Amino acid sequence: MGNITHKKIASWIFAIVVIGLYIFTLSPLFPTDNGSIPSLSTSSSTFTRTCFNDVLVTKVTDGDTIKAFINGEEQTIRVIGIDTPEYTSKKECYGKNASERAVELLKDKSVTICHDVVKPSLKDKYGRFLYHITVGGRSYSEIMVSEGLAEVNGYMEEFENESKLKTLESHAKSNGTGLWGACK
């Protein structure tokens, strides 16, 4: 015990504090027993992030709108951050491609959906729930934008991961990927 110095004790305390802070900051990424991700408060409001894991997608309306079961009820969900060409009522350029890719990625799949923490609106003006979607550990919006199947949606003034989506959109545009090469 004579070899333990104040410097060694301070080093151990510092390491424990750093590890504790690291675990504390990552804790919102780990689901709780009920399948939701623990609360994540934003500095601008008292909104608590709500996520649902293992949500079954039952229908793909188009590239940015789906139906899924949440808490035992089928709900219409509008994907936050993207706008895909229409393929339901009107046939827009690349709408079929976007809808087909959405079906491939989402239909009959189990996904995670989360409310936005920057703009925590629960529904849009059409009554659709607004969620970010993660499928297979990847952001659905990021996949669609990077493949040129969606553009960054401006109907929300700002939203979580907006800058990353805009960067992906810029790359897709400059490379003529998807709709940026075929339609614009």
Offer a few descriptive terms.
single chain, 184 residues, alpha+beta, OB fold (Dihydrolipoamide Acetyltransferase, E2P), two-stranded antiparallel ribbon
Structural description of this entry:
This protein is of the alpha+beta class and 184 residues long. The protein has one domain (35-182): Beta Barrel (OB fold (Dihydrolipoamide Acetyltransferase, E2P)), CATH 2.40.50. It is built from five helices and eight strands, in the order αββββαβββαβαα. It has helices at 6-26, 95-106, 140-146, 162-175, 179-182; strands at 51-62, 65-70, 73-79, 82-83, 110-114, 129-135, 138-139, 151-152. The strands form two sheets. It has a five-stranded mixed beta barrel. Strands 4-8 form a two-stranded antiparallel ribbon. Helix 3 runs parallel beside helix 4. The protein is globular. The chain starts with 5 loop residues before the first helix and ends with a helix.
Level-1 CATH class name:
Mainly Beta
- The residue fraction in helices comes out at 25-40%
Strand arrangement, major sheet: 1-2-3-6-5
In CATH terms, what is the architecture? Beta Barrel
Oligomeric state of the chains in view: single chain
Fraction of residues in β-strands: 15-25%
Largest sheet: 5 strands, mixed, barrel
Number of helical regions: 5
- Rounded to the nearest angstrom, the radius of gyration is 21 Å
Low-confidence stretches: 24-45
Overall pLDDT metric: 82
Reading the helices and strands in chain order gives HEEEEHEEEHEHH
Distance between the termini: 73 Å
> What characteristic shape results from the CA principal axes?
globular
